[in-house]
Design brief:
345 residues; alpha/beta; 434 Repressor (Amino-terminal Domain); Rossmann fold; six-stranded parallel β-sheet; 12 helices; elongated; disordered C terminus; transcription cis-regulatory region binding; Peripla_BP_I
Length: 345
C-alpha cells in the first residue's frame, strides 16, 4: 500500500500577498485594521484569504467580528525581574480596559528571527504593540515594525521616535555613583549589563559623574547576561585588585554575583568593597548585606505604557514621552572606605 501523501503546507501570509497581488504589509494592514487600505485591495486580500483557507483562529474571529483588540508585548525576556514586572503592569492595565494581552518572546536580534516574530504578531487582531526596548533585541524589533501600527516603546532612555515610557536611568545612576563618591571612595568601578545601544543610561550616568568629579574612570566590565552567575568571575577579578573599593553593577542580580566573587577572593562587603546594584530586585532587601540600589517601579512603567497605547487608539498619535525618576535605596552593602588592614569601627 503506497504511503499517504503528506498534508499540504498551510497557507502563509506571503502566499496571501502573492495571490492578492499586494505586499505582505498590505495584508497585515487588512488583518490588523491598523491603517486604511483601498476597498479594492482589501477585497482582493479577503478573497485570497478565503481561497487559500488562510485562517489563523484569532484572525478569523477578527474578520467576522470586526474586533481588533489584542495587545502584543514583544520582549526578549520574561524571567528577568524588570521585564516580567513591566509585562505584569501592561497586562493589568490592558485587562482592566478589556484588551487581552499576548506575549511574544523574540529570542535574538537576528534579522530572520525578528522578522518571523513581527510577522506572527501582525497576523493577530491587534489593537497595538508594546515593545520592551531594554536591550538590543527590542531596538531591532522597533526598527522592523511597520510605521502604521500603534506602538509604544518601553526603555531606560528616550529617542523621540515613538510614544515612549522611560525610567530616567542616567540620572538615577548618577545619583548612585555620587553617593559612593560622597562616602569617600576615590573612584567607582562599573559592571554593565548587556546594553540596548553602544552605552546605556546607567553607564552614561556613571561616567558623567566620575568625569565631573575628576575621578579616575576605570574600564567598564561587561556582564554576559542579566543573571547573577555572570557577575561571579568579574567579582573575583575585581577582588584581586586591592585598589578596588566600590563597584556599581548594572542590575541587582549581577551585583549579587559580584559580591559572591569578591568574597571568594577574600574581600568583605562592605568592609573592604562597597557594592551597589540597580532595579531594587525583590531579593535585594533580604540579601546579606542588604543591597544598596535604586528602585525602579516597573509595574507602574508597564501601566503607563498601556496608557500611552490607549491614547493612540483614541486618536492621539503624537510621539509622547512619559518619564519617571527611580530613587536611591540605601542599605548595608555600601559604606565609607577603610585603609587596608584597618578594622571598621
Amino acid at each position: 500500500m503506497p504511503p499517504a501523501a503528506a498534508p499540504a503546507r498551510p497557507a502563509s501570509i506571503s502566499d496571501v500577498a502573492r495571490a492578492a497581488g499586494v505586499s505582505v504589509p498590505t495584508v497585515s494592514r487588512v488583518l490588523t485594521g491598523a491603517a486604511r487600505v483601498s476597498p479594492e485591495r482589501r477585497q482582493r486580500v479577503l478573497d485570497a484569504i478565503e481561497a487559500l483557507r488562510y485562517r489563523p483562529s484569532a484572525t478569523a474571529r477578527a474578520l467576522v467580528s470586526g474586533r481588533r483588540d489584542q495587545v502584543a508585548v514583544m520582549t526578549s525576556e520574561t524571567a528577568v525581574h524588570g521585564y516580567s514586572t513591566t509585562i505584569k503592569g501592561v497586562e493589568t492595565a490592558a485587562r482592566a480596559a478589556g484588551h487581552p494581552v499576548v506575549i511574544s518572546v523574540v529570542e535574538s536580534r537576528d534579522p530572520e528571527e525578528v522578522d518571523r516574530a513581527v510577522q506572527v504578531a501582525l497576523q493577530l487582531p491587534l489593537a497595538g504593540i508594546v515593545v520592551l526596548k531594554f536591550d538590543a533585541v527590542g531596538v531591532a524589533v522597533l526598527d522592523a515594525l511597520p510605521a502604521d501600527v500603534p506602538v509604544v516603546a518601553v526603555s531606560g532612555e528616550a529617542d523621540g521616535r515613538y510614544p515612549q515610557v522611560v525610567l530616567d536611568e542616567e540620572s538615577a545612576a548618577a545619583e548612585l555613583v555620587r553617593y559612593l563618591l560622597d562616602l569617600g571612595h576615590r573612584t567607582v568601578h562599573h559592571v554593565a549589563v548587556p546594553p540596548s545601544r553602544a552605552e546605556d543610561g546607567r553607564t552614561t550616568g556613571w561616567r558623567r559623574v566620575l568625569e565631573a568629579a575628576g575621578a579616575p574612570v576605570p574600564a567598564v566590565r561587561l556582564a554576559d547576561s542579566f543573571g547573577a552567575r555572570s557577575g561571579i568571575a568579574i567579582g573575583r577579578d575585581l577582588g584581586a585588585d586591592p585598589a578596588v573599593t566600590a563597584v556599581f553593577c548594572g542590575n541587582d542580580e549581577v551585583a549579587m554575583g559580584v559580591i559572591r566573587g569578591l568574597e571568594e577572593a577574600g574581600r568583605r562587603v562592605p568592609e573592604d568593597v562597597s557594592v551597589v546594584g540597580f532595579d531594587d530586585h525583590p531579593l535585594a532587601e533580604v540579601w546579606r548585606p542588604g543591597l544598596t540600589t535604586v528602585h525602579q517601579d516597573f509595574e507602574a512603567l508597564g501601566e503607563r505604557a498601556f496608557g500611552l497605547l490607549a491614547a493612540q487608539l483614541a486618536g492621539d498619535r503624537r510621539p509622547t514621552l512619559s518619564s519617571a525618576l527611580p530613587w536611591l535605596v540605601r542599605r548595608g552593602s555600601a559604606a565609607p572606605p577603610t585603609a587596608p588592614g584597618q578594622p571598621r569601627r
